[in-house]
Design goal:
By secondary structure, the protein is α/β, with parallel strands linked by helices. The chain is built from 12 helices and 12 strands. The radius of gyration is 20 Å and the shape is globular.
């Protein structure tokens, strides 16, 4: 039996409800995979009314969501009320968002859903409520822990034009440089290479690794890290049979001709990876978490409090995230 995607509510005061409603309305013309929202039906109903959208909602169990999807947006209750108004998070926001994530992961692990797709969260709202993780990725890793061991999550930004992976993620640039090591690069690339085979169907993934410094260090005259950290990692990975090149100057890795030579770019820090992919594919880039025992994708944008409830939010990135999650769930390992 086909399994739907589990879509989290995200921050209730953000654009998550808006883009969820809009995505479901395009389900037939875009042939979207079946999904259900984990959240508060009353909030979703109120948002639909505020936006002037005619969306039929159905209270269902996860097991019944696939059959309901064609005629109504399936909503699976988390038991947490969400009373926030558009753009105005309140005391219910954090608990509602976190309960939705926990239940989505539980549904996938239990086999009730094929993948987790997450709507945007507001980290500042969660931090004020005591949330101790840097973001979604780290929280998902904790939920995926087994026998006290947490998987190492790897963040990929994927689009038809470019896929990128930052080795260090949500840390200050000075800390990113301090954390960078050959071991971290090797571990990250192994996870990426395996996922490209099992989840994207690439028999021989081609990887390109950026240097840390301008011009990949210019033979050591612009920094030693590319010679002492990045290059040894690339050599080790090449010795394992991975098709990989680097360290390469980051400023020449992302033009059209260069992108045709690799399937994924491995970058040393957050902005080095995210600036090119957001420049090339802002509307349809998808955040993918690799290294977990389940599939997780997400729109590559935030909560956009300033336009929540106005009707201006585009569902494009969420639609891309839903499609990619379904594609990954159906992929046959290469």
């Amino acid at each position: 039996m086909a399994k739907p995607l589990a879509l989290t509510s995200g921050e209730p005061a953000g654009i998550g409800p808006d883009i969820t409603l809009k995505a479901w309305l395009h389900r037939h013309e875009l042939k979207l995979p079946a999904f259900y929202l984990l959240g508060d039906r009353e909030l979703l109903s109120a948002r639909a009314e505020a936006l002037g959208l005619k969306v039929r909602l159905a209270d269902v169990r996860a097991e019944d969501a696939f059959d309901a999807f064609a005629n109504a947006l399936p909503v699976v209750s988390t038991g947490q009320r969400a009373t926030a108004r558009p753009g105005q998070p309140d005391s219910t926001s954090a608990d509602a968002a976190l309960a939705s994530i926990r239940q989505a992961v539980g549904d996938v692990i239990a086999g009730r859903a094929s993948a987790v797709v997450t709507n945007p969260i507001a980290k500042s709202v969660l931090y004020r409520a005591g949330f101790r993780h840097p973001g979604h990725t780290e929280f998902l890793a904790e939920l995926a822990a087994k026998d006290g061991r947490m998987p190492q999550p790897v963040m990929m930004l994927w689009s038809p034009a470019l896929a990128v992976v930052p080795v260090t993620i949500h840390v200050a640039l000075s800390e990113a440089i301090a954390r960078l090591s050959s071991d971290l690069i090797v571990t990250t690339v192994r996870i990426v290479a395996a996922a490209l085979k099992t989840r994207f169907g690439l028999a021989k993934p081609r990887l390109a690794v950026s240097g840390l410094n301008p011009h990949a260090g210019e033979d050591g005259s612009l920094g030693s890290e590319d010679h002492t950290i990045v290059a040894p990692a690339v050599e080790m990975l090449r010795g394992e049979g991975i098709e990989i090149r680097g360290p390469l100057p980051a400023d020449t890795m992302f033009h059209d001709a260069a992108r045709r030579t690799y399937d994924c770019a491995i970058c040393m820090y957050h902005d080095q990876a995210l600036i090119p992919v957001k420049t090339l594919a802002f509307e349809d880039a998808v955040n993918v978490t690799l290294g977990l025992p389940f599939i997780r994708t997400s729109p590559d944008h935030g909560t956009a409090f300033d336009i929540a409830g106005t009707g201006r939010a585009s569902p494009s990135s969420l639609i891309a995230a839903l499609r990619l999650a379904a594609r990954m769930a159906a992929a046959k390992p290469a």
